[in-house]
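Hi, here's the filled form for the chain we discussed.

Project: internal
Contact: R.S.
Residues: 297
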Amino acid sequence: MSDHKITINTPFNEQYELIIKMDSKLIDSYMVSRTVMRYDFTVINCDETGLECRLILLDQFLDQSNNDLVKEVAQVTAAFNRMFNELHLRLSHAGEIIKVLNMDLILAKWEQTKIEMTAAVANNDDLKKLIAINDSLFTNADKLKGAIQNSEFLHMYFGQVFYVDLPKTKRIVSPNILNTANLEWDMKIEEQVTNSRPDDKVIMVNMHPVRPLSEGYINAAYHQFKDRIDLEHLNFNMFQKEERYIESNTGKLKESVVEKVEEIGHNQLYQKFTYRMISDSEKKKQKINQNEVVPRF
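And the returned structure, exactly as it came back:
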């Protein structure tokens, strides 16, 4: 790994646990959930052109929920994710998919998965539309590659911090946290020096919307709520924060934490996500360190 560009430079195998927490208030609808996912990630080979890797989804379950709709969506998502529970990928050093090496296997799974998903949402027209969208996805290799690229694991591992010169600032166009409209974000990526983790690269990413918000964005993002909140006087707060702890000499991710928040309308409308992914090795190490702390009396 160079001083300024983070790369994976040695093969390894590791298991990871990802916990996703959601807290959402959409006027009259309040939803909370906690989802747990486990992965097995193997870097088979790495060279100057990129990485060959295998990613296995070991488990996925909805650990907590207060809403039946969340449970239905979780069922569909779990069935959909089985399409991608075994991935053989060629990646760039930045984590971008160059080629899905087992694309034929993924496509072959779709018909059976579609039957399971259809049965799970027999009484929900909105989720049936989601299945139809996915059906069109699996007839387009580029769209399918894009769906894999946007998967939780690849984002939590690579984000936009690998194979770039640090520090870095840039402006991107991306959806808001509610996923109702695109807007411009200012992104700052930098390394944080810390004595507490001398063997790690600690990389921070901070993203904030470009202000002021345009009238076009406000109408597109929040028009559906205009009868319930005052769009002229928004109590607006939106940001995304990311932290990654990466082994300095190998590029192996130890832990990543992502927080996404969008708050509108004085606690009437908000969506908050917290993602935390940690390797089993790092989790074990942290537990040992905690047990070694001697209490003071």
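Let me know if anything looks off before we file it.
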